[in-house]
Amino acid sequence: MKTVWKKVREPLAQSTLAKKALVNLIALAMKFIDRTNPRVAGSHDPEPVLKAMTPAIAALWHGQHLLAPAMKPRDLKIVAMFSRSADAELNALVAEKMGFGVVRGSGGRESSRGIDKGGARALIALKKTLDSGMNVAMIADIPHGTPRQAGLGIVTLAKLSGRPIVPMAVTTSRRKVLERSWDKTTINLPFGRSALIVGEPVHVPSDADEKLMEEKRREVTAALNAATARAYQLVGGAR
Q: Is the peptide bond before 205 cis (omega within 30 degrees of 0)?
């Protein structure tokens, strides 16, 4: 699948018509998968939770977020961040098709000198979004880093904005895990059951020092992993 995608990615990127057709097809497929996977007992409704904390920062893991756009509450305005890579462009277009606003960047990418310039610009854009009263969605772990370990990007955004990080996890009972992918990307399949879990919010003080930021990063990691484990438990099977 990866080899095939690499071969078709460049032609797709150059063809507006082909790209639009593929985006429409993926969006329809996601809606179909969502509708054929009824929520199990114990799942959460994200709409009242997010409304009570709006504007908030919805946090998900890489590889576990693919169905999330189909579960977005219609009445909530959410801006999602996607990396600037060619692969992420298609994801961003699908999210826009499904009602999300989009910011391009990588807020979790870090180096010995801190978050890179692209990530810093993305965080500034997301802070402005939160300041305007809209929610944002952000993948917590760093692209091609350690999966299911939160980066400092999302914690920094919470510190700068004063808004809570809300861990969220989505899964289905029928799924295909791409075992060779760095994040164990999970492809959700139709005709099963689904679970959506909203974890305990994490608040980061505006005066948090380096030590507290690391503690909050670990807290986000633990909260997201707990939400993910609970979602998988509800539909049956290990994550």
A: no
pLDDT along the chain (239 residues), means of 10: 58 72 93 97 94 96 92 89 76 91 69 59 92 95 89 96 97 94 94 96 97 98 97 85
Residues in the chain: 239
How many domains would you assign to the chain? 1
**HSE-CB of 65 using CA atoms within 13 angstroms:** 26
C-alpha angle with apex 139: 107 to 117, nearest 5 degrees?
10
CA angle in degrees (0–180, nearest 5) for 87-89-91: 85
Q: Is 148 left (phi over 0), alpha (psi -120 to 50) or beta?
A: left
Domain hosting 86: range is 2-235
